[in-house]
Amino acid sequence: xxxxxxxxxxxxxxxxxxxxxxxxxxxxxxxxxxxxxxxxxxxxxxxxxxxxxxxxxxxxxxxxxxxxxxxxxxxxxxxxxxxxxxxxxxxxxxxxxxxxxxxxxxxxxxxxxxxxxxxxxxxxxxxxxxxxxxxxxxxxxxxxxxxxxxxxxxxxxxxxxxxxxxxxxxxxxxxxxxxxxxxxxxxxxxxxxxxxxxxxxxxxxxxxxxxxxxxxxxxxxxxxxxxxxxxxxxxxxxxxxxxxxxxxxxxx
Length: 252
What we know:
The chain is of the alpha+beta class. The chain has nine helices and nine strands. The strands form three sheets. The protein has a three-stranded mixed beta sheet, with no helix packed on it. A hairpin with a 2-residue loop joins strand 5 (117-120) and strand 6 (123-128). It starts with a strand and ends with a helix.
């Protein structure tokens, strides 16, 4: 492997509430087993803020910060047509990248999680009951990040704000609600024409189930349409349910 070149792609952070893009060829993932480490949903993470009067702040750390052991670098090698390239740090798109980074962040912030911050991969939400506590907690988290030699993306820092977007939610003083972008996705969704369509709609609305009163009653008829034993056909009942659910999101 004399022609092996170390390769580090430029960081490509997700926008707040978006997703990371893959920077690794598909064949690199084939030899690896998926880690049994599940990421918490955005809904369960922001739920921590539902019962607090807190001012939010936001930090983003660089994703490309977990070094790969020298003996493991060759496992990430791929051929470009003229040379072999390998990664020196854990890339986006590697099947276990999110789980590894999330686990690392939970270990680094362990005693601060739930007390003054929550973390989702490389995004950290910090809070405080007052400006003074807000600033103190922000300082603690930044110090912890620096202690473990992680680099913060300064350009993405948001502090001392009354409202912030995080994982598809708008978080403000004593209020958490789905972002307008997510709500519009439900409102503008076309009437389902297949079981896959109805499954997709149920998944979208279920993500915000804590914000929709009586959702389980609404969904009973929609769940019925997922069954292969039932002919897929929207009746006036289902159309009315879809309309009411969209109307509910429009009120947000």
